[in-house]
Amino acid sequence: MAKILLAEDEEVLRMLVVDTLEDEGHDIDEACDGEEALELIKQNDYDLILLDYMMPIYTGLEVIQQVRQMPDKKHVKIMMLSAKSQQADQQRVLDAGADYFMAKPYSPLELVQRIEAILHGEDA
Amino acid sequence: MEKMRNYFRQSLARQFVALVTSFLFIFVIGSASLFSYQSSLTTSFEQKKEQIETKMKYAQEIERAFNQAFSDARGYLAFNRKEFKLSIFREQENVQTALDALELAATTKDDTQYILKARQFANYYFGTLVPQAIEAFENGNIQKVLSLSENGGTASIEQFQFQMKTYKNKLTEQLDREFQQLRDDQTKAQTAFILFIFTILTILITIARIMMKKIGRPLNALAVVAEKIAKDEQVVYDMRETTNREDEIGKLATAFKKMLTSIQEKEESLMAHNEELMAQQDELEFQQAELEQALETMQAREQQLKRRNDFINGLSNSLDKQEVLNSIVMHMARVMEADRGMIVLMNDEKTHATFGLSEYGVEQFLTYIYNGLHQRLFEQKKPFMLKREVAASEKGYHEETMFVHDVFLPVLSNENDVQAILVFSRFGGPFSDEDIQEYVGLTKQISISLQKIALYEQSERARETVQHILNTVQEGIHFVDQNGNSMIVNKQMVALLQKQSIAELEGASYERWVRDLVEQSDAGEKLCDYLRAIIFNGDEEREPFVYHLPQKRKVIQVYAKPLYRNGERQGTVFVHRDITKEFEVDQMKSEFVSTVSHELRTPLSSVLGFTELMLTKELKPERQKKYLTTIYQEAKRLTALINDFLDVQRMESGKQTYDKKYEDVVAIIESVIETQKVNTTIHQFHVQKETNKTTVLGDRDKLAQVFTNLISNAIKYSPEGGNITVRIYERGNRLCVDVQDEGLGIPEEAIPNLFTKFYRVDNSDRRRIGGTGLGLAIVKEIVKAHEGEVSVTSELKKGSTFTVSLPLVVMANTGDDERETDEKQAHAHVIIVEDDENLAALLEAELKDSGFRVKLVKEGKEAIELIQKEKPDAVVLDIMLEEHDTSGWDVLKALKQNEELAHIPIIISSALEEREKGMALGANSYLVKPYQPSQLSKTILQMLLNKERQGEIFVPLNEEAN
Q1: A96 in contact with chain B, both atoms CB, cutoff 8 A
Q2: Residue B719 falls inside a structural domain
C-alpha cells in the first residue's frame, strides 16, 4: 500500500482515478488546485504525486518547480497527467523536474499498471 | 712744397676740402677776437661805472651830512635843543669820513677840486661859523648870530650847496659819457665784424668761381661733345688741354676720348648692320600683315564654330524638351545673327520656344500654323527665304522704310515628315544660299536631338508605367543586380524599410540595404545568409524565408526569383509578402486547436475511463449506476461543448445566418425563464418590465440563446441560490436587459477577458462549476450580430449584472411639429396585407401611432374583397402569403386590372428583392424586409402628399390623431 496524492481540478476525473487506485488498496489524498496540492505535499510524505497540468491557481508545472525547491522533496516521485501530449510539452514537464508523464485520455488500468511499476521500482 | 702742390693738383676734392677748412679757420679766429674785444669793452665800462657810482655815493653822503648839519644848526638856533647841537658835531664826523673815502676813490681833477673845496668849507663851517654862532647864541647874542648869517654865513653855505650839486651833475655826466663811449665802441666792433665776414665771403665766392670754371668748362665741353655724338654730328674736339690735367676731369676726359674713338669705330660697323636689319624688317612687316589677315579669318571662323558648338552642346545638355527648344532657338539665332526666331514642334501640344517675340505674335503664329506662309514648308519640305518690308509695329522709332529677311526652315524626321519648323527674322541683311545650306545642316542635328528626346520620353513613360504597376502590387518588390546593389524598388518595399522615398533605396549598395533590412527585422544573420546565398551563390531553389518586423508588428515572407536575359543572369527579384494576417490566423488556429483538444480530452477521459472500469471490473450495482450516470453526463457535456464550439466557429466566421423578425423581447425572456426554472429550486426569478417598447428586430432562437446563457450562468454562479432579476428598460432608443444575480461575483481583473473563448475565471470557488467556457463568447457574437452591446458590472461575493442592449425598433414620432401631417394622415385609410402576425401587429401599431386608420388582412383573396369594399387610400402588400395560393403578386395584378381600384397606391413589403418586378406591375413603392416600421409611415405619407399636389383633396379630420 502506498500513499499517493492526486491533484486534479475535474471532479469526474478525480473520481475515476481515486476509485481505481483505492480498489488497488492505496491511500489517496485529493487536491482540487495547485495551491491545495502544495499544502498537502508540505504536510505529508507521499510515495507518488499525480499532477494534472491545467489546474487553477498554480499549474502542474508550477507545482513541480516549487516542490523541487523544497529541500526534503527533491526526490519525491512525481507523475504528470496532461492533455498536452505533444513531445515538446512532455519534454518541458520532464525538464521542470517531473519523473513520469502520462497523456490524457488515459486508461485507468494502464495508469494502475504504471503506478505499480513505479512503486516497485520497475519503471525507470 | 712742390709735393704739396702736386697733392692738391691731383684731386678736386682735396682742393675743395682745403678751401673750406681755411675758410672755417679764418671765420673762427675773427669771431673769437670780436668776442674778446667786446667783452673787454664791457668789463672796462663796468669798472668805470662802479667807480663813478662809488663817488656818487660818497658825494651824496657828504651832501646829506652837510644838509643835516645845516638844518640841525638852524634847529638848535631856533629851538635851542641840545640834541641838535650834538647832531651837528656827529654830522661833522660823517662829513670827514665821507670825504676821506671820496679822496681814496678820486680819479679826476674835478674830484680833487671838489674834495679840496669841501674840506675848506667844512673847516670854515664846523671850525668857525658854527662854533661862533653857538657861542653867540648861548651868550644870547642873537644879533651876532644874525650878523654871522648875514655876513657870509648863509652865502657861503648856499655857495657850497651849489658846488655840491655841480659835482654831482658832473659825476652823472661822466657816467653818461662813459656809457656813450661803450656803445660807440661796440658799434664799431660789430661793423668791423660784418665787414670781416663780407670780405671772407667775397674771397670764398671768387675762389669757388675759379674752381667751378676749372671743373665746369671741361665738363661742359665734354657734354657738348657727347650730345653732338648722340645727335650723330661729326665732331672734332681738341681735348689736349684737358687730357693733360691730372685730376678727375683729366681722367674723365681721357676715358671719354677713348670711348669716343671706340664709338666712332663701332658706328661704322653698326651702320652696315643696320642696313641689313632694315631690309629684314621690311620683310617681317609684310609677313605680319599676311598673318593678321589670316588671324582675322581664323577668329571669325572660331566665333562661328563656337556658336555652332554652343548650339550642339545645347542640344545634348538636357533631355527636357522645353529646355532643349529654348536652347535651339537661342543658339540658332546667334548662329544666324537673327533678331527674332521661333521653333514649333509639330506634336499635339505644339511645344515651342521663341526668341525676341511678343506673346501675341506667338499666339497668332500658333493659331495660323497650318495657314500661314510656313505652310509651304509642309508641302515642299525645303527651306525658303522672304524679304519683306518691316511692319510699322516692328520698326520702333525708325522712320525710313526697312526690310526684314525671314527664313523658314523645316526639321525633317527620318521618315521625311516635318517634325518641327523654325522661323528666324533678320533686319541686318539677306541670308546667302551658303548660309541656308549651313542652317539645313543644323536642322539635321535638331532632328536627331528631337528624336532622342522622343525616345527618352517614351522610355521614361514606360519606366513610370512599370513603376506604377510595381507600386500597385501589394508585395514589396526589390530587384538587385549581380553585385547585390539595389536597382528597382516599389513603394511597398520603401515602406517596409521605413525609408522616405524610392530614390533613397534605388541604387543603395548591397551592404546598405541589407543592413537596413536586417536592422528592421528580428532575423539578423539568418536573413543575411539567406540573401547572400541567393544573390551571390545563385541558390535559386531556396524556400521562402519568413522574418518579423518587431517595430511594425509585421510578419514578412520573402522569396526570390532570378532574372535572366539571353541566358545570362541579370540579378534577382525579391518579393517581400506581408503575411501578418495569415501568420496570426495560423497562430490563433494552433492555440485554438490546443485549447479545444484539452477541453475535449477531459470529458473523453471520463467516458473512456469509466467505460473501461465497467468493462474490466466486477462492480456493485450502485457503482455501476454512478459510473453510467457520469458517462452520460460527460457525453452530454461533450455534445454541448461541440455545439457551442460549432456555434462560435460559425458566428466568428460570419457564416451564421440570422432570421431576423420583429420580436417581443419580454416574450423571449419569459419563455427562457420557464425552461431554466426546472434546473433549480433555490433561485427566485423576477421580471421587471419598465417600458412598453420591447420590440426588436432579431432572430428569436439566437436571442433566446443569449438569455439562456446569461440566466443559466446566473444560476450556476450563485450556488447558494438567491434572486435572479431580469430588468427591461429603455435607454436612448435602445432596449436594455439586465440579468442580475446574487452569487459569487467576478474579480475585476477577469472582466476584460470574460467574453473571450474558453476563458474561465480562475477561482477555487468556481472550479466545481461546469461549463464550456464558450457561453459568453456566444452571447457576445449574437449581440454583435444584432448591432447590440453586452457589458458586465460585478462585485465579489455580492453578484454580477450582465446588460444586453439592442437597438429599439423606431416608431415615427408624433410630436407637435408633425400635427399638420397627423391630421391629413388621420383621414387616410390604410389596409395591411400581411400573414406574419407579429409583423402585422407591429406595422399596425406604427401606422396608428402615425395617425392612420389601419385594417389588417392575412389572405390574398380576402384582401381583394376588403379593398374593393373599403377603397382605402393606400395598401401595404406582402408578397409571400402562405395560407392560400393567392400571392401578393396576384393581389397586385388584380387591383391594377380593376379600374375602380387601379389608382390606389400600393407599397410592397417583402423579403424578396424583386423591386423591378413590383414596380413593373404598378406598385408605387417597394420596401425590402426587414425595414424600420417608421420607414413605412414615411413612405405612405410621402405618397399621399404627392397625390395631394396632383390635385386630390384630403379633408382634415378634427379629432386627435393619437
Answers
A1: no
A2: yes
Mean pLDDT, range B239-261, rounded to an integer: 78
pLDDT bracket for residue B454 (50, 70, 90): confident
B chain contacts of residue A36, beta-carbon cutoff 8 Å = 764
- Contact flag B609-A56 (C-beta cutoff 8 Å): no
Most confident of A13-17, A82-86, B128-132: A13-17
The least confident of A76-85, B58-67, B662-671, B878-887 is: B878-887
Calpha distance B347→B359 (Å, rounded) = 20
What's the structural domain count of chain B?
A: 5
Last residue of a domain, one of B426, B459, B492: B459
Provide the residue range defining the domain that includes A12: 3-119
Q: Which residues of A touch B630 (CB under 8 A)?
A: 12, 15
Q: How many residues in chain B?
A: 962
Question: Of A85 and B724, which is predicted with more confidence?
Answer: B724
The proportion of chain B whose per-residue pLDDT surpasses 70, expressed as a percent, equals 93
Q: A124 lies in a domain?
A: no
pLDDT single digits (tens) B303-317 = 888 888 888 888 877
**Segment B743-750 mean pLDDT:** 84
| Binary contact (B616, A12; C-beta < 8 A) | no
pLDDT tens track for B155-195: 778 888 888 888 888 888 888 888 898 889 888 888 888 89
Judged by CB atoms closer than 8 Å, whether chains meet at B764 and A83 is answered as no
Domain that holds residue B136: 4-214
Is residue B517 within a helix (H) or strand (E), and if so which, with residue range?
helix B510-520
Q: How far apart are CA B135 and CA B919, in angstroms?
A: 197
pLDDT band for B1, please (50, 70, 90 cuts).
low
Interface touch B768/A11, C-beta < 8 Å: yes
Same domain, B74 and B145: yes
pLDDT category at B290 given cuts 50, 70, 90 is very high
Cβ-contact B130, B88 below 8 angstroms: yes
Asked if the structure places residue B649 within a domain, the reply is no
Is B780 a member of any domain? yes
Identify the residue among A6, A8, A12 best suited for mutation to test binding to B, counting B beta carbons within 10 A and taking the highest: A12
Residue-level pLDDT at B278: 93
Residues B74 and B199 in one domain: yes
Residue B956's pLDDT is: 35
Amino acid (1-letter code) at residue B660:
K
**CATH code, domain carrying A17:** 3.40.50.2300
* Per-residue pLDDT at B817: 41
Note whether B762 and B802 are same-domain residues: yes
Residues B863 and B908 in one domain: yes
Q: How many domains does chain A have?
A: 1
| Residue B773 belongs to domain with CATH number | 3.30.565.10
Contact A56 B598 (CB under 8 A): no
Contact A83 B602 (CB under 8 A): yes
Burial B708-731 (b: 16+ CB within 10 A, else e): bbbbbbbbbbbeeebebbbbbbee
A120 torsion bin: left (phi>0), alpha (psi -120 to 50), beta (else)? alpha
Check CB contact of A68 with chain B, cutoff 8 Å.
no
* Mean per-residue pLDDT of chain B: 83
Q: Which residues contact B376 (CB under 8 A, 6 or more apart)?
A: B384, B408
B63 and B209 together in one domain: yes
State the DSSP string of B240-288: HHHHT--SHHHHHHHHHHHHHHHHHHHHHHHHHHHHHHHHHHHHHHHHH
Same domain (yes/no): B760, B777: yes
Point out the residue among A13, A20, A56 whose CB comes nearest to the CB of B602: A13
Distance CA B909, CA B880 (A): 10
The answer to the question of residue B500 being in a domain is yes
Q: Which residue, chain included where needed, has cell 411639429? A: B817
Could you give the CA distance from residue B389 to residue B398 in angstroms, rounded to a whole number?
13
Residue of A nearest to B633 (CA): A12
